[in-house]
């Protein structure tokens, strides 16, 4: 275990940047060598007399810069020389870092400063741990820059993205999509963009209606709003969409499409079994509904066929790399039904011509990289550790969770309403999403919240956030009646 000088360098700005500068200087000077293990967050906080949140933020800054690497379950280490990205001018992070300071409440703890402290922990959206993918991406970017396979002086096209689409097809090898080839795949700027170009390919007429699950990913509604399409929620049960409710809504509103997430429903985590999917396909065929399947949160090894396989003439499939590799590249993809590929390509071409050539080349190299599949597995296993922490603390309550799925759905006990609970949690430094964010504007939301797994923060910090939520759940305000 490496030791760090407890004389923190003075830096203008937040304390965590001073800590980051101190560690970076130790790396530059050689006092901290490659592969040296740094102290745990709480131990270093105790040594320096500061909060664990300050140390955690410093570690995150240095990890993002490539000076440190975090290994889930093992700790934080000094990165190897080939992984480092020291500032060229040696300027302190406090002078060139764009991150905003976080609020920290100092809580005295004897003569050693602060141990029990509050710092904002954002659990709004899932955060991926950095387990080596950043280093691989940097090296591949360098390869693309040196010799870009697609060139740099022409517009992108469907033909020029062939190698990337083949790589996506190989990446989807364990997904039951039915008969598919690379021409059925269109690359998009993330999963949200894939939803938009699919709806652009489907919707017809002056007021085309889009059906969504009554609790659903807000991006479905946002894409429909951009296309001026009314959105109608459809009732659900423990298996997902209710076929009878789907048929009634489709007939009543003359809907053209249903948007759904059958493998990992966002936000509830519900899985739709095969018999229910077959019943939904039967309704869709009788009423000529297209089915858009969002698989961005899909767990590995799902044995059930996709809607594209069950209904190849009307099943659209989309996903991205944002929940498995990195959201920073904004790489998504859509798979069209049989005989609909030309419509999907036209929507992409007319919207943005295609992804930039360097990103297309990078995607091809990244998905075919020998470590890519192993990295995805590492990310999922890392999520599992955070999920276990949440379940250990909150499992006594009505909690829905799945292995490798980076969010949990919590139905609140009597005495709590969703908005009040989210406000109380934020006052305790934990930011989560209310069920209200996943329903239509006019709909009533259940008293529930979604807790995202943010694996960008240390596990002990996440664990402490779960402790705070558990205390709130155990002590509902008496003024709220149900």
Describe the model.
By secondary structure, the protein is α/β, with parallel strands linked by helices. The protein is built from 16 helices and 17 strands. The strands form five sheets. Strands 4-12-11-10-9-5-6 form a seven-stranded mixed beta sheet, sandwiched between helices. It has a four-stranded antiparallel beta sheet with strand order 13-14-17-16, with helices on one face. A hairpin with a 2-residue loop joins strand 7 (236-237) and strand 8. Mean pLDDT is 86; it is low at 85-91 and 94-118.
Quick take:
The protein has 482 residues and is an alpha/beta fold. 39% of the residues lie in helices and 13% in strands.
Largest sheet: 7 strands, mixed
The stretches of 5 or more residues where confidence is low (pLDDT under 50) are 85-91, 94-118
**What is the second-level CATH architecture of the largest domain?**
3-Layer(aba) Sandwich
Distance between the termini: 53 Å
Strand order of the largest sheet: 4-12-11-10-9-5-6
**Oligomeric grouping of the chains:** single chain
Which strand-content bin applies to the residues?
5-15%
Provide the number of structural domains.
3
Can you tell me the CATH topology of the largest domain? Aspartate Aminotransferase, domain 2
């Amino acid at each position: 275990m490496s030791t760090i000088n407890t004389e923190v360098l003075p830096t203008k700005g937040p304390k965590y940047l001073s800590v980051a500068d101190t560690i970076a200087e130790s790396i530059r000077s050689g006092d901290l060598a490659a592969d040296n293990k740094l102290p745990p967050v709480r131990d270093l906080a105790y040594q320096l007399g500061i909060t664990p949140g300050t140390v955690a933020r410093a570690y995150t800054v240095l990890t993002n810069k490539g000076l440190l690497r975090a290994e889930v379950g093992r700790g934080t280490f000094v990165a190897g020389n080939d992984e480092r990205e020291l500032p060229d001018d040696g300027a302190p992070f406090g002078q060139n870092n764009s991150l905003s300071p976080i609020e920290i409440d100092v809580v005295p703890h004897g003569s050693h400063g602060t141990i029990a402290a509050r710092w904002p922990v954002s659990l709004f959206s899932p955060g991926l741990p950095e387990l080596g993918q950043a280093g691989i991406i940097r090296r591949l970017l360098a390869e693309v820059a040196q010799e870009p396979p697609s060139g740099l002086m022409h517009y992108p096209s469907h033909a020029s993205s062939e190698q990337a689409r083949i790589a996506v097809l190989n990446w989807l090898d364990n997904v039951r999509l039915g008969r598919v080839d690379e021409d059925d795949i269109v690359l998009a700027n993330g999963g949200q963009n894939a939803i938009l170009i699919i709806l652009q390919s489907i919707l017809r007429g002056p007021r085309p209606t889009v059906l969504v699950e009554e609790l659903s990913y807000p991006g479905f509604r946002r894409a429909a709003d951009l296309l001026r399409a009314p959105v109608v929620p459809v009732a659900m049960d423990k298996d997902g969409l209710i076929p009878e409710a789907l048929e009634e809504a489709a007939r009543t509103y003359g809907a053209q499409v249903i948007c759904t997430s059958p493998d990992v429903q966002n936000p509830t985590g519900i899985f739709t079994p095969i018999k229910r999917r077959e019943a939904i396909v039967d309704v869709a065929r009788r009423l000529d509904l297209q089915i858009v399947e969002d698989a961005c949160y899909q767990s590995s090894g799902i044995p059930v066929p996709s809607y594209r396989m069950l209904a190849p003439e009307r099943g659209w499939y989309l996903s991205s790399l944002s929940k498995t590799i990195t959201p920073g590249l904004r790489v998504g993809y859509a798979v069209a039904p049989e005989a609909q590929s030309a419509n999907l390509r036209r929507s992409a071409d007319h919207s943005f011509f295609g992804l930039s050539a360097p990103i297309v080349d990078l995607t091809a190299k990244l998905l075919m990289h020998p470590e890519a599949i192993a990295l995805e597995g590492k990310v999922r296993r890392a999520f599992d550790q955070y999920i276990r922490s949440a379940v250990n603390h909150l499992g006594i309550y009505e909690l829905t969770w799945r292995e490798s799925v980076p969010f949990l759905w919590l139905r609140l006990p009597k005495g709590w309403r969703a908005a009040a609970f989210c406000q109380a949690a934020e006052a305790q430094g934990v930011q989560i999403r209310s069920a209200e964010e996943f329903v239509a504007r006019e709909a009533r939301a259940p008293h529930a919240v979604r807790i995202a797994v943010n694996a960008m923060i240390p596990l002990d910090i996440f664990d402490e956030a779960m402790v705070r939520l558990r205390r709130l759940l155990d002590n509902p305000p008496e003024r709220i009646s149900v």
